[in-house]
Design goal:
Rossmann fold; single chain; 20 strands; 2 domains; 4-stranded mixed sheet; alpha+beta; globular
């Protein structure tokens, strides 16, 4: 499957009973401030719209010699932290403007290997500037991940994550937005829906049959020149395990790992590396959902660390080897897989 580092998606799903929660440790997150102030800033106030699926925490890290799971719970809310950061960044030459951050993802996670630990921070957000007439204009977006490796990664990863947020805000508050589009505050609160309607994948009444090598071609509904002559399902399920094309008068199997998705008989199927198969997706409430396995922590069972990284990180990264079926949602921004809920066995 062809993927780029920019099409990375990282999401942390957490499943814990209330009794287990009480036994878990927590870790604070406090954003660090840069030493240098800006010479010019147009914005004095920042407002936060927290659109994350789970806004109760910032993920999971590991603490102590036994790598005890600790839920990242900031003692000071993110809106106040971002405002304090803006206060610290701004110098004497600061206008009275306002920016709004639409926060889609901000999570930390850690994975223990044989000789080192990997720490991850995923940050996905939009930034808007308030105009004089009360409307808002688009400033910038970010969809980035940090991968840090060392023997003890928690503090270093949090510092790097903090710097990523700080850099994103700093490089945008010193510029004015191009007022090509104006949005109301209510528009921004529903900005995902506005963005999805710009994509052929989400606004087409019928999807185009064919093979899509990457998410960009899928969202633009531009299939490759290859056409599917036949498929093989896994038993009586809706899971496709083989796809074929006609070549020189014979059916030839197409390599699955060179394909992101297919549309077969009007239905979309997403390739899931963990399953090594195409999982049938259905559109519901404006999004595409499908069921597939991700990996969970084998020893604890109660904490699921599912990381849908692509590009150089590769495939689904997790902290254990036990596969768990989940309902997954396709992220319209980059084609990543967002775990929604565990599918309980009957």
């Amino acid at each position: 499957m062809k993927k780029s580092l920019k099409s990375v998606l990282f999401f942390l799903g957490i499943i814990l009973s209330s009794s287990i929660y009480s036994q878990k440790r927590t870790e604070d997150f406090s954003i660090s401030f840069p030493d240098k102030k800006l010479e010019k800033s147009y914005y004095k106030t920042i407002k936060l719209i927290d659109a994350r699926a789970d806004s109760t925490s910032l993920g999971i890290v590991q603490k102590g010699a036994f790598n005890t799971k600790a839920k990242v719970v900031p003692t000071k809310n993110l809106n106040d932290q971002f405002q304090n950061l803006l206060n610290q960044i701004n110098g004497e030459n600061t206008d009275e403007g306002t920016v709004v951050m639409y926060l889609k993802q901000f999570y930390f996670a850690e994975i223990t290997g044989a000789f080192s630990e990997h720490g991850y921070c995923y940050f996905q957000a939009y930034l808007f500037a308030k105009n004089e007439d009360g409307t808002y204009s688009y400033l910038d977006k970010i969809d980035s991940v940090i991968d840090h490796s060392s023997m003890d990664v928690t503090k270093a990863t949090m510092k790097k994550g903090s710097e990523m947020v700080s850099d994103f805000i700093s490089r945008n508050i010193s510029k004015k937005a191009l007022q090509t589009n104006q949005y109301s505050f209510e528009d921004i609160k529903n900005f995902d829906e506005i963005e999805k309607q710009k994509l052929s994948l989400y606004n087409s009444a019928e999807l185009k049959e064919g093979i899509y090598s990457d998410y960009n071609s899928f969202k633009d509904q531009k299939p490759s020149e290859k056409s599917i002559s036949n498929v093989k399902f896994y038993g009586k399920t809706s899971k496709i395990i083989k796809i074929y094309e006609m070549a020189e008068g014979k059916e030839k199997e197409i390599k699955k790992n060179d394909v992101f998705a297919i549309v077969y008989q009007s239905s979309p199927y997403i390739y899931l590396p963990v399953e090594n198969a195409f999982m049938k997706a259905e559109k519901r409430d404006g999004d595409f959902y499908f069921i597939g396995k991700i990996k969970s922590t084998a020893k604890t069972g109660d904490v699921v660390l599912a990381s849908a990284f692509f590009g150089i990180i590769g495939g689904l990264i997790a902290s254990g080897s036990t596969s768990v079926p989940f309902e997954l949602k396709l992220d319209y921004l980059n084609g990543g897989f967002i775990p929604i809920k565990e599918i309980q066995s009957k």
